[in-house]
Amino acid sequence: YAWIRAVxxxxxxxxxxxxxxxxxxxxxxxCRGQIKPHVPLSIAEGSVDETRCQRxxxxxxxxxxxxxxxxxxxxxxxxxxxxxxxxxxxxxxPSHWQLTGHATPIYT
Length: 108
Prior knowledge:
Its EC number is 3.2.1.23. Keywords: Glycosidase, Hydrolase. This is beta-galactosidase. This protein is of the alpha+beta class. The protein has a domain at 59-67 and 87-108. The chain has two helices and two strands. A two-stranded antiparallel ribbon has the order 1-2. The longest helix has 14 residues, at 2-15. It is elongated. The relative contact order is 0.10. The model has no long low-confidence stretch (mean pLDDT 77).
């Protein structure tokens, strides 16, 4: 029985000398489909002075209010020019509202 098994294995090896592995099993398949490193945000065409007026730095103090749920938010539109946010707290940006005392940080 061992002799027949050996002949069978030899026959299979001769019929398929270079078995091509699927790409996910090929240890030589590294970096295929990989994008070259790049900067996702870059200066637009033209001088720095031209693009400076098109940017808005968001750092600073911002008004903030945390609602229990989206449905409990006020129906007043904060995007209105005459919106009154004087009762809202202030948070520093950049930061995270949980780290400024508005909720308990959740670490998972």
